[in-house]
Amino acid sequence: MESISTYIGFNGKCREAMTFYQECLGGELDLQQVGGSPMEQMWPTGGKELIYHSTLTNGNMVIMGSDMSGPNHIAGNNMALAIGCSSEEEINNLFNKLGEGGIVLDPLGLKFWGAIFGTVQDKYGIRWMFNYYKEQQK
Question: What is the value of pTM for the model shown?
Answer without folding.
Answer: 0.68
